[in-house]
Amino acid sequence: MNSARHPEIIEAWTARIFETCGVPRDHAAEAASMLVRSELRGYKTHGMTRLASYVARLKANEFNPRPKMTYRALPGGIVLQADGAMGQIAGPYAVRLALEALRTTASVLVVMQSCGHLGALGIHTLLAAEGGAFSMMGQHTPPALAMEGFRGPAIGHNPIAFGCPLSGQAPIVFDVACSVAARGHVLLAAREGKPIPEGWALDAQGRPTTDAQHALEGSLMPMSGHKGIGIAMMVECLAGALAASAASLAAPRSEAMQDAFLWLVRPEAYAGREAFDEYMRQWTQIYVSASPDARLPGMRGDAIEREAREHGMTLPPVIAQELAALGEQLGVPFPE
């Protein structure tokens, strides 16, 4: 069940799964590509393990399988109404809109309304970096973070990422949640019946816990204490408040829909491309020369993606079993 499979085979199967949920073929293929690429680059908590939950949300109409996305352009900005689209559809669309806008402007901020879970934000900023732009992205989530002693979750764990092109090399891609560990790691531990490390989470009474199930009933702890809370607040301002409208403020807040922001910058509009590329080369060379173990964020992801595309991808047995069960349920047999 855990033998290597070619990524294209898994992509095609995943697309067919989405199509059984009413997702149009082109959207199904793009969403499948994003999920599989997340898996290939090591985002295990945001890759194929998310497929079953996305299917459940599509079936429950919490995600819109056939969104009619619209946008409003303004100087230096775009307001994208994603119409309940999966994040794996809305995110790449936002990147394409922003890259097109950079043809005539130095910088563009895209605010994404009514957007589903974006998954690994680093995949979206990677797309922007591969298009030649510096990018930053954040998505606000329902309250999940708390400090020890809090009566409950106080603010979202609000993931944030950036991507930057690096001439002649794979882009730099940095992706973190504002929690010590992403909630996906806790979900995976609970699914596998494993404990979580100390310092990751609090139980429902605000006490530290290593029980993954108790953690899911309680709160995540912020990275670096108040510093992580501060970054989560920044994401609330950019991804939440800028995307707010009278209608969204009046409506009940849906856990399935999580507004987001995407900011792109065209490097050559500032320093000029040659100077930008040379500066990036110099500081990254100093960094990686400082230790045999030093590596830039994104290097490992690029290496393991290349390896998997050449030799096949291997899924954890528990995830492969879940996917096989999902395929059987939907009449789309999982490839052996």
From TrEMBL:
InterPro entries: Mal/L-sulf/L-lact_DH-like_ah, Mal/L-sulf/L-lact_DH-like_NADP, Mal/L-sulfo/L-lacto_DH-like_sf, Malate/L-lactate_DH-like
Key word Glycoprotein present: no
Pfam family, one: Ldh_2
Keyword field: Oxidoreductase
A molecular function GO annotation: oxidoreductase activity
Protein family: Belongs to the LDH2/MDH2 oxidoreductase family.
Protein name according to UniProt: Malate/L-lactate dehydrogenase
Source organism per UniProt: Caballeronia choica
